[in-house]
Amino acid sequence: MKFTAEHEKNNANLLEKLRNYSEEITENDHTIFLKIISTKLDKWQINQIITPAEIFPRQKYVLATHWHPEFVPMELNRERIEKMFPNRKDELIIPTQHNEFMTYGSYTGAEVDCYASGFHEKVQLLIHFESGKLKDKDTMLRSMLAHTRKYRASQLFDFTNSFTKPVEERMHAASKKTGIEPVAVKFACTVVKKIQWLLDEYWDKVPDFSLRNKLVRNYFDALRPEFGHQFIDRVQTFVNEVKKIVKRNFPLEYFYRASEVIEEVRGIGGGIVIPHPEQFWPILLGRYDVDGYEVWNPQSNRYTEFLIDVVNEHNKHRRSSSKELLILMGDDCHQGEKTRRKDEQDPEKTEREIGLQPAWDALNIQKKLIRGGVTRASVIDEYRCRLSG
């Protein structure tokens, strides 16, 4: 009885807060918005970045060709890496921000969204360069990345319009899928309307980095102290379902074709890797001019052993004039997650670390890697050689 009474009291308090939640923009709304678009790091955030949860003294080779610095300064990323792998003998570390070049040490990279016309699907490519090769040669490629970044940002507005117009079929489908209560749907629509208004208000101060769907997630997370984790979790589930619908319906023809991106990258002397191919497996049949496949990723690891077999078999029967496909693995680490408060972090994403790919050391996978003569050290040597060629 006591539990029931307390539960009813909490529900009553929540309903009262929802009734009193202003549909007008408040001072607190301005504060929240400016905070979530800020790239300035507080001391506690810096400490979280430079203090890894675990140290790996036995890992001697660090290979990281798929990770996202986001807004975390490179010197802080470097400090974290140095602490995590204190006994490393060699490394190849290349950042791959979404549709934007970023540089770490002697290397520059990006993860590019593009369009595979052969099977009508969005795919991604990791592109890597020795930084010196980009000087005076990359004008076209940078313009392509800028266009893609701008087009990807337009998805955010399609996402927010789903709540503010609203797009009834998306609202209905997401409500049905999640079973969310009407009062929570109304709350979500009110909050997103505020986000849209604040975007317009502060447009000249909003960094490109913030123009992503995560902006909506982060704003709702900032409301947890007021409305509680349980309620915001339900709202986030609904909001995320709407996002999935938007992404499924996002037009693809405005992306550059994968072949166009590859042509530009090769013209500058860059390397190309297909990341998490199991998410769009037909790309493996496209015979694209790439250096290798990412056979393991925290979110793409169901077919790791099969993909290693595919690469080994390709290399075994390749023509003498063609180069071997490399086997790579990606940590797909998003460093911005390390700047969030512990109770707001996505645990699955927070566990990802630059250069940490446990599959290299899994005994069943090692058996297959040995058959292909593949180690982290050998991949570092070979890919570095290709990038310098």
Report on the structure:
With 389 residues, the protein is of the alpha/beta class. It has 15 helices and ten strands. The chain has a six-stranded mixed β-sheet with strand order 4-5-6-7-8-9. The protein has a two-stranded parallel ribbon with strand order 1-3. The protein has a two-stranded parallel ribbon with strand order 2-10. Helix 5 (139-164) crosses helix 10 (229-248), helix 7 (182-201) crosses helix 10 and helix 12 runs parallel beside helix 14. The protein is globular and about 70 Å long.
What keyword list fits this structure?
about 400 residues; alpha/beta; six-stranded mixed beta sheet; 15 helices
| Poorly predicted segments | none
Could you give a short account of the major beta sheet? 6 strands, mixed
Helix content estimate: 40-55%
Supply the number of helical segments: 15
Q: Termini distance?
A: 74 Å
Strand order of the largest sheet: 4-5-6-7-8-9
Alpha-beta classification:
alpha/beta
Oligomeric state of this protein: single chain
Overall average residue pLDDT: 92
Note the beta-strand portion.
5-15%
Could you state the order of secondary-structure elements as H and E? HHHEEHEEEEHHHHHHHEEHEEHHH
Spatial extent as radius of gyration: 23 Å
- Could you tell me the number of beta strands? 10
Inertia-based shape: globular
